[in-house]
Amino acid sequence: MRHEDSSGNTGDLGPGDVQWMTAARGIIHSEMPQQTEGRMRGFQLWLNLPSAEKMKPAAYQDIPSEKIPVIDMAPGAKAKVIAGSIAAGGKQAVGPIGGQGGLSTDPRYIDFHLEAGAVIDAPVPAGYNAFVYVYDGDALVGQSKQPVPHRAAGLLSDGEGVRIEAGTQGARLLLLAGKPIGEPIVQYGPFVMNTRAEIEQAVADYQAGTLAQG
Q1: Are 138 and 147 in contact (CB under 8 A)?
Q2: Does the pTM of the predicted model rise above 0.70?
Q3: Quick one: CA dihedral 65, 66, 70, 76, positive or negative?
Q4: Cα torsion 181, 123, 108, 154: sign
């Protein structure tokens, strides 16, 4: 996947690589598939920013797969830590995004690979919004073993962790969590702001060609 944006950033994402971009006050970008054969799978996730940070400068970074730590969670279970941190077996893996703090929403982005029947207890800070998305296989989530099938998402209730058990075919799933912002959200197309007036201004800036300037 080739990326280009209005700030002059370019990058080529290979298997397992991650792109982390902060749109903030405005950036225009494109991603174009580059594979020569077969199928490509990827995930695009949007994280909101508090109103006080929405107009900060845009930012971008490519993170190669070899820079993303992987930790053994339990027999037959591994966690790839993209954002935040996770500990298991006396070891800790800190992701390249926000692992040492500094992001106000404290995002957690973990990619779990579980063999058939593997069970993990994944930490989730109390009070955070969180969900799981199963992109391969199926899983049983929580103490009640709520089934989450292939290509389904499950919104988690509040707590300090979640138990995940892989189904008979194993499971690969994402666990996403973040600190709630508690502000109004107004969305239109690719624009996310706090008020309708701010959305109208963003659209006007885009139409005038000034959105990603300054």
Answers
A1: yes
A2: yes
A3: positive
A4: negative
DSSP line for 21-50: EE-TT---EEEE---SSS------------
What is the C-alpha separation between 172 and 113, in angstroms, rounded?
5
Q: Which amino acid is at 101?
A: G
**pLDDT confidence band for 92 (50 / 70 / 90):** very high
User: Residue ranges of the domains in the chain?
Assistant: 68-183
Q: Residue 126: is its pLDDT beyond 60?
A: yes
Q: Give phi and psi for 116, each to the nearest 5.
A: -50, 130
Distance CA 97, CA 99 (A): 6
DSSP codes of every residue in 130-168 = EEEEEEEEEEEETTTTEEE-TTEEEEPPSSSEEEEEEEE
Give the pairing of strands 129-141 and 70-74: unpaired
Q: How far apart are CA 159 and CA 126, in angstroms?
A: 5
Topology of the domain covering 68-183: Jelly Rolls (2.60.120)
